[in-house]
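REVIEWER CHECKLIST
Item 1: Sequence provided? yes
Item 2: Single chain? yes
Item 3: Sequence as submitted:
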Amino acid sequence: MPGAYAEYATCMAGLATKVTSELSDDSAAMIEPMSVGLGAWKAANVAAGASVLIVGAGVIGLAIAKWAHFFGAGDVGISELVPARIARARQLGIEVIIDAAKHPDAVAAYALQTGRKPSVIFECVGRPMIAQLIEMAPPNAHLVLTGTGMQAENFTVVSAALKRLRMTFPLAYEPADFAFVNRMLASRRISVEGLVTATVGLDEVASMFQSLGKSNDHCKVLITP
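Item 4: Structure as written out by the authors:
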């Protein structure tokens, strides 16, 4: 329902979630992106100890990295172009950091640092890159297209088939994911530290959207009434 960028908003009761009293407003506002990351992780059905590569260090990519650590993945790597986002991923303790400007083949760079290739690759960019992922993916890898891009892709199916790749296209989350994230944040078993990069008032929303429409290094921007 439109109109949420306001002091008060209306929603259907069935879509409302009671926020645990232990959570701050800022943490509660992060339940949604953390649920997107959780939904992608569940859809990927990642085996414990699996090697994971995340392409894109925005809020969803970093949320997936947090869940990867939570659920016991092996080496967790992130590939990113923007220096500020690379620095943020490093501050959050991501083990394998890949500067995509210097190493466009993220899989090769991951292997150089870890000694093995990723078995699961999460795309969190939202721009056409399936052909690029197929080209650099190792055989039998699982590609999880979390970015949900809206532009047309152009790739050859046989290129993926020859490597026996799998592709999964997760979409957002399920209602139960909100309750789970709520509990995990309230119990401090997982945190959203480092994900919020700005907080603006309602009178600053329009100018912030203009800034976000250009190249920027923000992760998550919160709006306060």
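Item 5: Key structural point noted by reviewer: Residues 29-168 form a domain with the Rossmann fold fold (CATH 3.40.50.720).
Item 6: Recommendation: ____
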